Amino acid sequence: MGYSFKEMWMGRDPPPNRWRGSSGQAHYPYKEFQPAWSARMKQRKFLALWIMAPVLVTTFTSSWCYYILKSRGWLHMLNNPLEGAAELYDLTLRRYFRELKAELYSYRERSAYERAIAKEQEEVMAQFQKYEELSQGAVQSPSSKD
User: Fold this and answer.
1) How far apart are CA 15 and CA 31, in angstroms?
2) How far is CA 135 from CA 106, 109, 128, 130, 139, in A?
3) CA 15 to CA 12: how far, in whole Å?
4) Confidence of residue 85 (pLDDT cuts 50, 70, 90)
5) What pLDDT was estimated at residue 18?
6) CB neighbours of 9 closer than 8 A, spacing ≥ 6?
7) What does the pLDDT look like over 119-137, one tens digit per residue?
8) Quick check: 33 pLDDT over 80?
9) DSSP secondary structure, 14-75, as one string
10) pTM of this prediction exceeds 0.70
11) Other Cβ atoms within 10 Å of 140 Cβ, number
């Protein structure tokens, strides 16, 4: 069974030990006295962790994003967030994917062209070897008659 909000954060006394026996004492040792400043520190800790931290993070990130949009001239995106998100996607990720697709397509074309040239060179070399064999045979045939 969990502790209530008041027991955990706002109370002056430590939360009651709900576990029985030595395991309870090991995890939650009994404290007879908890001074007032300790309760105050608990309240401040709660305020800092659960209220101030999210407020600060949200405020900082939203203002940072606002100034980024303002510096790029994109404040009109905040008027209609759905269209703004679509436009932001167009300006960033879609452009990147378009360039990536074009790059892959050109790579495929280039590699296919290189393979065609290599195949053509192999065919030319094969014809050249046949020609050399025939020419050497033609040169050697009269000498073999002698």
Assistant:
1) 10
2) 43, 39, 10, 8, 6
3) 9
4) very high
5) 66
6) 42, 43, 45, 46
7) 999 999 999 999 998 888 7
8) no
9) PPP--S-HHHHHHHS---S---HHHHHHHHHHHIIIIIIHHHHHHHHHHHHHHHHHHHHT-G
10) no
11) 9
Rg value, the chain, Cα: 40
AA letter at 75: L
2/10 Cα distance (integer angstroms):
15
Q: Cβ distance 42 to 10 under 8 Å?
A: yes
Which residues, 6 or more positions from 84, have their beta carbon under 8 angstroms from its beta carbon?
Answer: 74, 76, 77, 78
pLDDT greater than 90 at residue 22: no
C-alpha distances in Å from residue 26, one per residue of 55, 67, 101: 36, 52, 62
Q: What residue type is 99 in one-letter code? A: E
Per DSSP, the three-state class of 69 is helix
Phi and psi torsions of 113, nearest 5°: -65, -45
